[in-house]
Amino acid sequence: MSDPSLDDDEINRLHRKKMERRQAARRKVLATKTEERGLLIVHTGAGKGKSTAAFGMVLRCIGHGMRIGVVQFVKGAWGTGERDVLAKFPDLVTCRAMGEGFTWDTQDRARDIAAARAAWEMGQAMIADLSYRMVLLDELNIVLRYGYLPVEEVIAALTAKPRDLHIVVTGRNAPAELVEAADLVTEMTLVKHPFRAGVKAQKGIEF
After folding, report:
1. How far is CA 131 from the centre of its chain?
2. What pLDDT is attached to residue 78?
3. N or C: which end of the chain has fewer CB within 10 A?
4. β-bridge mates for residue 40, sequence order
């Protein structure tokens, strides 16, 4: 709270001094951050926005002229707005929607495992392709949770990635081994969702 005995000029002077100190401290910290390398990034948690945030980074990479590979492990049985947008950048983005919907939709475990394996093989090919700067493995955590792919195999491939490649993994219930191996982990927390009030998934919000 501002001191009521101070006039605006004095308040502004004190504010400027405070910001100068913060700026100096910030610059001192930034001066120690010199390494640049690809990151293993995980978006998990029960809250909405995991894939949305990941596609935001994909768009950021497009803005920098970087090449990106996207593999969708679950989404694929329905169209999405982000795929329509990414299709406008064929020279920079390769997007493969290889899922067939959630397991309760397919009701065929063997078919789900086969789809997960095919998507993972595509993801591994992208990881090995040095022309990519980012690979997004959308909803990979879901197939790991159901045991459709061996966690040890996936972690070994992700941690052996090319040094300059960013990999982003999304989906609820990221395994502890993946969280431990990652450089950056964000957990989306569910506070409130309109689905619980009877609102269905909508264009521009969910897809």
Report:
1. 20
2. 62
3. N
4. 167
3-class SS letters over 71-101: EECCCCCCCCHHHHHHCCCCCCEEEEECCCC
Q: Structurally, how many domains does the chain consist of?
A: 2
Is the same domain home to 117 and 182? yes
Question: Side chain identity at 160, as an amino acid letter?
Answer: A
Phi, psi of 91 (to 5 degrees): -75, -20
Q: How far, in Å, CA of 107 to CA of 136, rounded?
A: 26
The length of the chain is: 207
**Does residue 134 sit in helix, strand or coil?**
strand
- Please tell me whether residues 24 and 111 are part of one structural domain: no
- pLDDT band for position 85 (50/70/90)? very high
State whether 44 and 26 are in the same domain.
no
Q: What is the mean pLDDT of residues 168-190?
A: 97
Q: Are 55 and 136 in contact (CB under 8 A)?
A: yes
Terminal CA-CA length for the chain: 44
Is 36 exposed, middle or buried (CB count within 10 Å of its CB: 0-12, 13-18, 19+)? exposed
Q: What is the pTM of this model?
A: 0.85
| Residue 206 within any structural domain of the chain | no
The three-class DSSP label of residue 68 is strand
Tell me which residue range forms the domain holding 134.
40-197
